[in-house]
């Protein structure tokens, strides 16, 4: 671990030069872009704080009126969204008594994003993001209201559930990139990192509350009300978006219709190290490190024999860690490639330690550590990607980012499940930790070498280990 940290410390110097080069690249890109008629402003430098934020600044982005409205609506929407997911899966299980068909339902919700996600980014770059989100939420009201009504009337069929699940996935294609890029329009460049961390906190708070509330509602009155609640939440989102002070927004330049905009987005990602390398690392983390729920059931049933109660405890421990990591990320002074890759390495190693844990209480502690390190990586990666992206192309970049997250989890679930069946749950979890850790080490070495830096160790120096140019 010390070796990894030392190697990755070299990235601080390299990351700084990358940010400066990125600004120059953006200016050139805007001058020759085929998607805009007007020259858009270059990417601003990534903010660096010279002292750690005060605790009262932990929620700095909430000082923005529009973002406060957004946070209220997203807190409600995230909680109700989790409620609907749980209720929909339970509904399909009730209708079919077939776990495989429940998996089909989950796949249908993700499939549109995996197939059409980049087109959603193109759309987000072309239109007013606030109005686009209002439209998608209005469609969500109709879809969830319809499914809820059919369920409450007792006439719903699996085919109708699947159709609506697929259509909601199509809505997510357009809304996801727009929502990610719209955060910058609300809070501006300086507060963006803080807002991303707060968004992660809200998402995981919803992940804690939503399933619990949905479970109670399902037990008391059935799945229909949990689904219908999401329609009401979507109405609240539409109202809050319509109530925003438009004059206080920082609108992004709109990309005009042109051919090759998807290729342009892909070229942009590959051309910028502060976007490309976090996405490469994200692919490893999402494929191997974010498939923990696949293994927790087996650990609860077969390893520690703690049953459903233990499964709930393990899931809650990971969620508590994630919420803690999201709050801690608001205290960062800056975001660098070094810190992102280091967080990924720690994340992988903690997974390995959890897999080797001999007793359940220690396993729970490691699960909290997994949640913290995963969120420190995730918020750091999203922050540096957004801050390094020109606003005129941010929708496309974030759509690629979302596709990597969802695609990695979909593929990773299959890989992890197959490994658990073939080699056992302990070995599968060890592999899920070792792969991200090795990927982080490899990327760290590549970045250090590209910066022409090396480690120098000297017993007589005040600094026992230091990073120096390779030529000295």
Automatic annotation (TrEMBL):
Top-level lineage group: Bacteria
Coiled coil, from the record: none
Subcellular location(s) per record: Cell membrane
Main location: membrane
Any GO MF annotation of the entry: transmembrane transporter activity
Domain Major facilitator superfamily (MFS) profile: 226-472
Membrane topology value: Multi-pass membrane protein
Pfam families: MFS_3
Transmembrane parts of this sequence: 99-124, 136-156, 162-182, 202-221, 227-244, 275-299, 311-330, 337-356, 362-385, 397-420, 426-448
CDD domains linked to this entry: MFS_MefA_like
GO cellular component term, pick one: plasma membrane
InterPro entries attached to this UniProt entry: MFS_dom, MFS_trans_sf, TM_effector
Keywords, comma-separated and alphabetical: Cell membrane, Membrane, Transmembrane, Transmembrane helix, Transport
Protein name: MFS transporter
Naturally occurring in which organism (per UniProt): Lacisediminihabitans changchengi
């Amino acid at each position: 671990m010390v070796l990894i940290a030392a190697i990755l410390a070299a990235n601080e110097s390299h990351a700084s030069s990358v940010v400066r080069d990125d600004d120059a690249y953006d200016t050139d890109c805007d001058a020759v872009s085929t998607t805009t008629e007007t020259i858009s402003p270059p990417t601003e430098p990534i903010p660096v704080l010279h002292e750690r934020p005060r605790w009262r600044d932990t929620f700095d982005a909430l000082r923005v009126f529009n973002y406060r409205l957004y946070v209220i609506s997203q807190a409600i929407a995230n909680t109700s969204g989790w409620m609907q997911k749980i209720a929909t899966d339970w509904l399909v299980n009730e209708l079919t008594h077939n776990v495989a068909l429940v998996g089909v339902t989950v796949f249908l919700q993700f499939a549109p994003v995996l197939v059409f996600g980049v087109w959603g980014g193109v759309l987000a770059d072309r239109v007013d993001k606030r109005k686009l989100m209002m439209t998608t939420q209005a469609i969500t009201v109709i879809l969830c209201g319809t499914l809820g009504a059919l369920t409450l009337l007792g006439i719903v069929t699996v085919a109708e559930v699947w159709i609506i699940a697929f259509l909601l996935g199509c809505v997510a294609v357009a809304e996801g990139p727009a929502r990610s890029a719209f955060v910058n329009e609300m809070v501006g460049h300086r507060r963006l990192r803080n807002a991303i961390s707060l968004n992660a906190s809200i998402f995981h708070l919803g992940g804690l509350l939503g399933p619990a509330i949905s479970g109670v509602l399902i037990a008391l009155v059935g799945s229909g009300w949990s689904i219908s609640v999401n329609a009401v939440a979507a109405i609240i989102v539409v109202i809050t978006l319509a109530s925003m002070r438009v004059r206080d927004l920082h609108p992004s330049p709109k990309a005009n219709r042109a051919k090759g905009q998807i290729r342009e987005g892909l070229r942009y990602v590959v051309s910028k190290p502060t976007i490309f390398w976090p996405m490469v690392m994200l692919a490893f983390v999402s494929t191997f490190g974010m498939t923990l729920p696949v293994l927790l059931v087996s650990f609860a049933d077969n390893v520690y024999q703690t049953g459903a109660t233990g499964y709930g405890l393990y899931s809650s421990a990971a969620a508590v860690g994630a919420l803690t990591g999201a709050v801690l990320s608001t205290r960062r002074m800056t975001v660098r490639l070094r810190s992102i890759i280091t967080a990924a390495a720690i994340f992988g190693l903690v997974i390995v330690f959890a897999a080797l844990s001999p007793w359940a209480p220690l396993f729970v502690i490691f699960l909290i550590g997994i949640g913290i390190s995963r969120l420190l990586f995730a918020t750091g990666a999203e922050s540096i990607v957004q801050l390094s992206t020109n606003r005129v192309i941010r929708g496309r970049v974030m759509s690629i980012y979302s596709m990597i997250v969802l695609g990695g989890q979909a593929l990773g679930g299959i890989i992890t499940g197959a490994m658990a069946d073939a080699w056992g749950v302990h070995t599968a979890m060890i592999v899920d930790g070792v792969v991200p850790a090795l990927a982080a080490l490899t990327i760290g070495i590549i970045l250090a070498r590209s910066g022409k830096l090396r480690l120098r160790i000297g017993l007589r120096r005040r600094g026992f280990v230091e990073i120096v140019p390779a030529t000295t």
